[in-house]
Amino acid sequence: MATNPQAMQNTPDVLNLIAGEWRKSGCADWIDVTDPATQDVIARAPNTTPDEMEQAISSAAEAFKTWKEVPVSERARMMFRYQALLKEHHDELGEILARETGKTFADAKGDVWRGIEVAEQACHAPALMLADSAENIAGGIDTRTITHPIGVCAGITPFNFPAMIPLWFFPLAIVTGNTFVLKPSEQDPMTPNRLAELFLEAGFPPDVLQVVHGGREQVDTLLTHPTIRAVSFVGSVPVAQHVYRTSTDHLKRCQAFAGAKNHMVILPDADKQQTINNLVGSAVGAAGQRCMANSVAVLVGETREWLPEIKAAMETVRPGRWDDEGAGYGAVINAGAAQRIRDLIGQGEKEGAKLELDGRECTVEGYPDGNWVGPTLFSGVKPGMTVYDEEIFGPVLCTVEAGSLDEAIAMINANPYGNGTSIFTASGAAARKYTHEIEVGQVGVNVPIPVPVPFFSFTGAKGSFYGDLHAYGKQSIRFFTETKTVISRWFDSGIPAGGPNLTINMK
Ligand code: NAD
């Protein structure tokens, strides 16, 4: 097992995992990692140098030559050990994650758990990689397909799920026989490093996973490097577009998961209290920094009269530091993000939305410097207003009104995003109509955050996803593998030898 000297020396410098060793970068410029509740600098992430990037990529390429030959059952056995280690260290990972993201401890553990579930799914690789075969497709000829790994894959991940999202990618890529270079978010790099330490402890060869830190420059190296065969990205829309365009322009396979604006449609026959509780949790949980948060409530018909109760429920939620058990959510990731959210709230007011609850002046006792934004509620929001059109990524709920389910569907289908949506209703017919007609990749029926478990795939759509094959589930196995089709015939099967065959055989 490789030991991370970072922990031993108690240095705040985040290390890279290159060629099986934890190495301190020789870069000149470092990126501060701050505690969102205090602004204390808790670590520094490197801007990994071009030389170090090259070492990581070539080490992954070298490792691929032998790793792809390891039987899939053996690779899966290592993954069984890894998922067990992740569970054993669940609390510890939750705390590291909570400290650097500001999430509450309970929510941080949820982030880790959703990643563990993907590692569990990766243990099924031997069955998931099985492919097709057919006998005697023509006289004496059999055909079979083989799934095999593609090479060195790269993952570029966002700040908001520093355990779950790296785990969406590297376990499935590696268990299928690839090697992997991970470039986590520079804002919370310590959780991914701990995931990588446990990965080595599980017994994987030390060079099949490389972890390099940094930002745009390091990402661009991965997108353009000829050795990288596939890129998995999660982050904001402009960066997702850049990643998809650049990596496909460099002839790579790419799956790029982007930003979102998710709607929860509320019909008058829905269970009022259940709906309001679920809506508020979805909109402000994790400070609204979830790509699947329902940040727009579509109040259909008389549900517009539920507004005072929605407001009252939001007023019961307060933010706090990660270890405050009474807090509903934590601080926003950084001061710039908090200011952007406050500015957008101001913009919403200016553009005519009614600010029912204003979280801009929120404070938390004992933490005067934290990135706090209180629960915020707008009514009278309309498409075309900035608070409707832009992803706010803060604890801000916009309510819009619709006269009918058809009107709600038309509004949502006109929205460029398509990550998630929910409908709350007691009517099976209305839910059936909604799930059939809505042009969004993931739909919850009385479920506020419809993130699929890992034996399905995460199927964001429209402007929330660029690519073909989605994360985890069967689609991920296809993303990380290539198909080879073998058509074979043996001449001892009694086929008479004739002269040269110069035509396409039709039997
Ligand atoms: P981000 O786009 O700022 O960063 C994502 C990654 O890209 C990071 O690793 C970052 O270092 C890198 N990066 C940043 N700017 C870059 C640039 N100009 N060129 C190349 N690389 C760059 O996103 P974020 O703020 O970390 O994460 C929040 C966003 O991610 C939100 O928009 C959210 O909706 C989205 N998200 C989407 C999903 C999904 O499944 N669709 C899931 C989680 C988060």
TrEMBL record:
Q: Per its UniProt entry, which superkingdom is the organism in? A: Bacteria
What PROSITE patterns does the database record attribute to this sequence? ALDEHYDE_DEHYDR_CYS
**Record's SUPFAM superfamilies?**
ALDH-like (SSF53720)
EC number(s) per entry: 1.2.1.27
- MF terms per GO, please? oxidoreductase activity
The keyword Oxidoreductase appears for this protein: yes
On whether S-adenosyl-L-methionine is a keyword of this UniProt record, the answer is: no
Transmembrane annotation, as ranges: none
Domain Aldehyde dehydrogenase intervals: 23-486
Database matches in InterPro entries: Ald_DH/histidinol_DH, Ald_DH_C, Ald_DH_CS_CYS, Ald_DH_N, Aldehyde_DH_dom, MeMal-semiAld_DH
- Keyword set, alphabetical order: NAD, Oxidoreductase
Q: Which residues form a coiled coil?
A: none
What's this protein's family per the entry?
Answer: Belongs to the aldehyde dehydrogenase family.
Q: List, alphabetically, the PANTHER family matched.
A: MALONATE-SEMIALDEHYDE DEHYDROGENASE, METHYLMALONATE-SEMIALDEHYDE DEHYDROGENASE [ACYLATING], MITOCHONDRIAL
Q: What is this protein called?
A: methylmalonate-semialdehyde dehydrogenase (CoA acylating)
Tell me the organism.
Answer: Spectribacter hydrogenoxidans
